[in-house]
Specification:
It is flat and about 95 Å long. An eight-stranded mixed β-sheet has the order 8-7-10-9-11-14-15-16. The protein has a six-stranded antiparallel β-sheet with strand order 3-4-5-6-13-12. A six-stranded antiparallel barrel has the order 24-25-26-29-28-27. It contains 20 helices and 30 strands. α2 crosses α3. By secondary structure, the protein is of the alpha+beta class. InterPro entries: HET (IPR010730).
Length: 733
C-alpha cells in the first residue's frame, strides 16, 4: 500500500504540513540509526526524516499556533535564548531528524545530530482509528476491571503459555483442562486415595506441590475453601498488602464453615473480592490468598505453611499482583485516571491510490518523562510505582520473583509480566527500565546444574546482591521477619549455587566480598531485638543496603577460618537465626579520631551527598597521614570508642596504578553464651567452634562500619608485603 500526502490541516503550519507531518514524522520510513565517530568524537545519526528550519521561523510558527513547532520548542526544553544561540545564528538553520529506531515504537527527535539534543516520546493510536494499521501501539487501558480488559489479559496469558518457550520450560505445567478435579459439597476431594499417583502417571511433568487449601472461585457469589489433599490444580496466587487487620481471616473457629457453607463476599476486603472476580473472569477455578488459606490463629498451621510458601508462588499458574492497593480494603480494579497526550497530530494516508481516496487518522504523542498522573517525573512507560502497594512490602519481592507470570495491576494500567517479557495489556508501549529483574533459569528450575565458580555461577552470586538491594528498601511490619520474608528466594539460590547460607550471606570463596555491604544512609538506630549477627546486612531493622565493589575484581587480604550460624528453627534453616559466629584471619589496625575539619566524610560511592560524620575524620594510628573514607552504621557508636580496621580485600585503582583497600570497622564485644539462648538446640556449639588444638580463643568483635582507603593514600602503607601467616584470628558476632 502506498502512502501519499494530503492537504495540510489547520493545526500545523504549512511548512510542517508539507514536511514532517506529511512524512508521518518519519515513523514509517527507514529506521533511525546511530554510530560512534571516533574522529569527530560524537554520535552520527542516519535514517528517519530530516528537515531544516531557521530558529526564528520555529519560534514564530510556535507562537502562531503550530502544534508541532510548539511541541519542538516546549517539550524539548528550548527557550528563546537557546534558539538565538550563536551557532544557529551563524548557520541560519537548525536540523531536526525525526523517526523511530528499529524494533521500537518511540518517536525520536534529534536536533543537529547531538546526543545531548535527542529525546524520545511514546506514540499510539486507538484500535478503531484508521491509523491503527500503521501504528501498532495503543493508549494504555484505564478500565483495568472491565470485561474487555480482562478478556485481553486472558488472551495475553494464553499467548504466553502457547508461544513463550522459556515460560513453558520453566512452568512445565499440563493443560488447564487436565487439572480440573471434581469437588464435593464437604470440600474434600472425591478422588480415591490413589488419585494423586494416577495424576502423576498421567502427567509426569506435574509438580509435586499443591497448596493445602485453595479458594473455590467457580461461584464468585459464594466462594469457599477447599482442601486439596495434595492433588495439584491450576490456581492463581494473590500478592497484596494487608495494611490493616482482616477480621474475616480464616481461623480454627470458622474454617469448617468456610468449607461447608462458603464465605459471604460482603465480609471480605475489596482486594480479596477483586481477586476472586479476576480469577473467575480468567476462567481459573481456584485462588490462593494467605489470609484465607492459612489458619491465622494456629501457630502450627502458620509454621507449616510458611515452610512451603515459596512453592505457592513458584507453582502458581498466575500471580495477581495488587500493586496499586496500599491496604486490603482498597481493592485494585477501580478505573485509573486517564492520561491525556501532549500532542495529537493528523496521520494521513491513501486508502486507494488508484482512485486517490484519502483518509486521515491521528496519532497521540506522550512525553516519556511523565508519571502516571501526568506530572513531571518518572517514565510513564516503566514500572514507576515503587512507592505503591506491593513494591513497598518486603514479603512481596519473593512473591514477584518466584512467579512464572504475574498480572500486575499498577496505579495506571494492568501489565502481564512473564519470564519472557513485560507488556501492558491492550498494546500500550512499555519500557522495561523499571522492571523487577527476573531470576536466571537455573535459580527457578531445580534440575538445571551449573559449574561452581563458573561465569554463570558468579552472575548468580551477583544477582543475589541485586535482590538484597531491592529487598532492603522495602518495609516489614515485624522486624523479626527480616530473614523469613526472603527465605524462599534464599532456598532457590542455595540450590543453584550449592553454597551454605549464612544469615543473608553465602559461605563460599566469595564470602569476603559478601561482607563488604554498606548502608546508603548513616546512623541507624540499633534494633530492639536480635535479628542477625553484626556482620550480616540483616542486622538492620530498616536500612537500604548496597554493594559497589565488582564481584570479579577483588583480591583477598584476609581468610575465612569458619562461619557458623544457628537457625532459630530447624524447620526453617534459612530463616531467623539465634546467633552467628565468623572467624577471620586478618590484620588489625587500630584507628584514632583525627582533628575536626569543616568538610564531612561521605559514604564511599554513595549516590546521595548526605554527611556521615560531620566534622570528623578517622585515621590509622600507625600512619596519621592516612585518612579513611568511612561509614559508622549506628547512631550510638562514636569515634571516641576503641575502633579497629580490618582490611578484607584490595581492588586495582581505576587508573591502574596501585590498589585501594576495603574492609570492616570493628569494636570489641562480649562473647555471647550460646548455651543460655532460650530454645537453643545447639548447647554444645561453643565446643564445636573451638576444638582442642587452639592455644587460646580469638578476641571477639562486632561490626560497626565500613571503610575504604583510596589508592593515593594506600601507597603510604606497607600492607602489600604482609602475609596472612602473621595475621590475627578474630571472631565476629
Amino acid at each position: 500500500m502506498t502512502l501519499t500526502p494530503w492537504t495540510g490541516p489547520s493545526s500545523v503550519c504549512p511548512a510542517c504540513s508539507d514536511g514532517p507531518v506529511s512524512a508521518h514524522l518519519g515513523l514509517l520510513g527507514k529506521p533511525m540509526q546511530k554510530r560512534w565517530d571516533e574522529i569527530a568524537k560524537r554520535w552520527l545519526w542516519s535514517g528517519g526524516y530530516v528537515y531544516d528550519i531557521p530558529p526564528a521561523e520555529l519560534l514564530s510558527s510556535a507562537a502562531s499556533g503550530c502544534k508541532w513547532c510548539d511541541f519542538v520548542v516546549q517539550r524539548c526544553g528550548y527557550t528563546k535564548q537557546d534558539l538565538e544561540d550563536v551557532q544557529w545564528v551563524v548557520r541560519g538553520t537548525m536540523r531536526i531528524r525525526i523517526g523511530r529506531m528499529r524494533e521500537e515504537w518511540i518517536l525520536r527527535v534529534v536536533v543537529d545530530g547531538l546526543e545531548t539534543n535527542s529525546w524520545g516520546y511514546a506514540v499510539s493510536t486507538s484500535l478503531d482509528d484508521p491509523a491503527a494499521r500503521w501504528i501498532p501501539r495503543r493508549p494504555r487501558l484505564p478500565d483495568v476491571g472491565s470485561k474487555r480488559t480482562l478478556s485481553l489479559a486472558k488472551a495475553c496469558i494464553a499467548q504466553c503459555t502457547r508461544e513463550h518457550e522459556r515460560c513453558k520450560a520453566l512452568a512445565s505445567r499440563p493443560s488447564l483442562e487436565s487439572l480440573q478435579a471434581p469437588i464435593n459439597d464437604s470440600g474434600d476431594d472425591i478422588a480415591p486415595p490413589h488419585m494423586l499417583e494416577l495424576f502423576r502417571l498421567a502427567f509426569p511433568e506435574l509438580p509435586e506441590f499443591a497448596p493445602t487449601r485453595l479458594i473455590d472461585c467457580r461461584c464468585p457469589q459464594r466462594p469457599r475453601i477447599i482442601l486439596t489433599k495434595g492433588i495439584p490444580r491450576f490456581y492463581v496466587a494473590l500478592s497484596y498488602v494487608w495494611g490493616e487487620d482482616q477480621p474475616q481471616r480464616t481461623s480454627e473457629a470458622n474454617l469448617s464453615s468456610y468449607i461447608t457453607d462458603g464465605i459471604d463476599p460482603a465480609v471480605l476486603p475489596q482486594t480479596l473480592r477483586d481477586a476472586i472476580r479476576v480469577t473467575h473472569e480468567l476462567g481459573i477455578d481456584f485462588l490462593w490468598a494467605d489470609s484465607l488459606c492459612i489458619i491465622q490463629d494456629s501457630p502450627e498451621d502458620k509454621h507449616r505453611e510458611l515452610v512451603s510458601m515459596r512453592n505457592v508462588y513458584l507453582y502458581a499458574y498466575l500471580t495477581i499482583d495488587a500493586a496499586s492497593a496500599g491496604k486490603a480494603s482498597d481493592g485494585f480494579l477501580e478505573d485509573r485516571p486517564p492520561l491525556n497526550p501532549w500532542l495529537v497530530l493528523p496521520f494521513g494516508f491513501s486508502r486507494d491510490p488508484v482512485n486517490s481516496l484519502k483518509e486521515t487518522g491521528s496519532i497521540h504523542i506522550y512525553a516519556r518523562s511523565l508519571t502516571g498522573d501526568g506530572s513531571v517525573g518518572q517514565d510513564i512507560l516503566t514500572n514507576s510505582y515503587s512507592r505503591y502497594g506491593t513494591r513497598q512490602r518486603a514479603w512481596c519481592l519473593q512473591e514477584t520473583m518466584l512467579s512464572t507470570r504475574s498480572l500486575i495491576f499498577t496505579p495506571w494500567t494492568v501489565q502481564l509480566r512473564c519470564q519472557t517479557v513485560t507488556q501492558n495489556i491492550g498494546g500500550a508501549d512499555h519500557n522495561a527500565l523499571g522492571d523487577t529483574p527476573r531470576l536466571p533459569d537455573v535459580v527457578l528450575h531445580p534440575d538445571i546444574r551449573i559449574e561452581r565458580y563458573s561465569d554463570e555461577w558468579i552472575d548468580i552470586r551477583e544477582r543475589w546482591h541485586n535482590v538484597i538491594e531491592d529487598y532492603s528498601r522495602r518495609k516489614l511490619s515485624y522486624a523479626s521477619d527480616k530473614l523469613v520474608a526472603c527465605a524462599g528466594l534464599a532456598e532457590m539460590f542455595s540450590r543453584a549455587l550449592g553454597s551454605d547460607y549464612a544469615a543473608g550471606l553465602w559461605n563460599d570463596d566469595f564470602l569476603l566480598h559478601d561482607l563488604l555491604w554498606n548502608v546508603q544512609l548513616h546512623s541507624h538506630p540499633r534494633p530492639a531485638e536480635y535479628l542477625a549477627p553484626s556482620w550480616s546486612w540483616a542486622t538492620f531493622e530498616d536500612a537500604t543496603i548496597y554493594y559497589h565493589l565488582d564481584i570479579r575484581s577483588w583480591q583477598a587480604m584476609a581468610a575465612v577460618v569458619r562461619c557458623i550460624v544457628v537457625p532459630r528453627d530447624d524447620a526453617l534453616p534459612l530463616g531467623p537465626v539465634t546467633c552467628g559466629h565468623l572467624v577471620l584471619q586478618t590484620h588489625l589496625f587500630e584507628c584514632t579520631k583525627g582533628r575536626e575539619v569543616v568538610s564531612s566524610n561521605l559514604p564511599p560511592y554513595s549516590q546521595s551527598p548526605i554527611p556521615v560524620r560531620p566534622k570528623e575524620i578517622l585515621l590509622l594510628k600507625e600512619s596519621s597521614e592516612v585518612q579513611l573514607s568511612f561509614d559508622l552504621h549506628y547512631e550510638d557508636d562514636t569515634l571516641d570508642e576503641e575502633l579497629w580496621a580490618a582490611p578484607l580485600v584490595r581492588v586495582r585503582a581505576d587508573d591502574g596504578e596501585g590498589y585501594k583497600y576495603s574492609g570492616l570497622l570493628l569494636m570489641p564485644s562480649a562473647r555471647p553464651d550460646i548455651g543460655e539462648v532460650p530454645g537453643s538446640k545447639h548447647k554444645h556449639l561453643d565446643k564445636i567452634l573451638w576444638k582442642v588444638g587452639y592455644a587460646e580463643r580469638p578476641r571477639v568483635f562486632r561490626r560497626v562500619g565500613y571503610f575504604e582507603i583510596p589508592s593515593r593514600d594506600a601507597t603510604k602503607l606497607d600492607w602489600e608485603g604482609r602475609s596472612l601467616e602473621t595475621a590475627t584470628q578474630i571472631e565476629l558476632v
